[in-house]
Design goal:
Immunoglobulin-like; 4-stranded antiparallel beta sheet; 3-stranded antiparallel beta sheet; 1 helix; flat
């Protein structure tokens, strides 16, 4: 059983799942199609010699790329909020709350809207503790 720091608290902060403040079950907007890709920066020492120990797994990737299909949407209608583990996207017709697979550096991300394809492409830098691979 978890002890609360404050006797008047109803629950402890560890009991509340991260990102739950973004959940809105009553919102009627539909969820857009999206795709999560992982990017890895490799050089000749990785490809030919295997000197750095990187492999094709997501554990060695530096960036997460999220492609979100937003048909019939203008760039000015998109609201995007990035937290360390949550991506929150809202448009007049669509809403996406995505819990990210890895913590990201929300200050170093970038997004671009490809109007011909009607796709929002969000690139986020993975925030990792250094280990023997990274």
């Amino acid at each position: 059983q978890v002890k609360s720091e404050n006797k008047k608290s109803i629950w402890n902060t560890e009991e509340v799942p991260e990102g739950s403040e973004f959940d809105d079950t009553w919102d009627p907007r539909e969820k857009p199609e999206y795709e999560i890709l992982f990017k890895q920066h490799v050089g000749t020492e990785d490809v030919f010699f295997g000197m750095t120990g990187k492999d094709p797994s997501t554990a060695c990737c530096e960036d997460i790329v999220i492609k979100i299909k937003l048909p019939e949407t203008k760039y000015s209608d998109i609201t995007l909020d990035i937290q360390d583990k949550v991506l929150d996207l809202r448009t007049p017709k669509k809403k996406l709350l995505l819990h990210l697979p890895y913590p990201v550096n929300s200050k170093e991300g970038r997004a671009r809207f490809l109007s011909e394809e009607e796709v929002l492409e969000v690139t986020l830098r993975v925030s990792r503790k250094f280990n023997f691979i990274n």
